[in-house]
Write a structure and sequence with these properties.
Layout: H1 4-7, H2 9-15, E1 16-21, H3 27-38, H4 43-54, E2 63-69, E3 72-82, E4 91-99, H5 108-121, E5 128-129, H6 137-145
Parallel strand pairs: 4-5
Antiparallel strand pairs: 1-2, 2-3, 3-4
């Protein structure tokens, strides 16, 4: 695979030979790419995720795509259509997206996001969402550059940080 610094971002995006459905054979590449971004290899997690998206139980609205560069997986995306409580209509969700670190900022993630969005919209939904940690500026910038903006919901959580913070019965 050419390195980003040897080819330039435009050349990398142009060299993506195709975006295709993910397959079970892509598991090791997905684990490798994710491990770089998260700092931890999670083959069991990814095996479960891919089975859910690729297996016979995967329903309409599940999107699992790989970008290939010179016959190798350069990136992947998983998304689906779901509705939650609190009056949220069914919408698309980008659950996972990752690109080989050697090829970052080459347009691969944007190409994957474009195709995933097209497939999700083909189910009839008009909104696509994702969640990103507040301090992950590169990922926030990526989604904002690709047209995402703050939505109508605010995610809140109650944590048990091993302190006696829970109310007594």
């Amino acid at each position: 695979m050419p390195r980003r610094d040897e080819t330039g971002p435009t050349a990398v995006a142009a060299a993506v030979t195709r975006i295709r459905p993910l397959t079970g054979d892509d598991l090791s590449d997905v684990v490798r790419i994710d491990a770089f971004h998260t700092g931890e290899a999670k083959p069991e997690y990814w095996n479960r995720m891919l089975r859910g998206f690729l297996g016979p139980s995967a329903g309409r609205g599940h999107v699992g795509l790989a970008a290939e560069l010179d016959g190798n997986v350069a990136g992947f995306v998983l998304g689906d259509v779901r509705a939650f409580e609190f009056g949220s209509e069914p919408c698309g969700w980008i659950l996972e997206i990752g690109v080989d670190p050697e090829l970052a900022r080459g347009g691969i993630a944007s190409a994957l996001l474009d195709e995933a969005s097209r497939q999700l919209r083909a189910t009839g939904i008009s909104t696509i969402r994702t969640m990103v940690t507040r301090n992950n500026v590169p990922v926030l910038t990526f989604f904002r550059t690709n047209g995402f903006a703050a939505g109508p919901y605010v995610q809140l959580e109650l944590r048990d940080d091993k302190e006696d913070t829970w109310p007594s019965p």
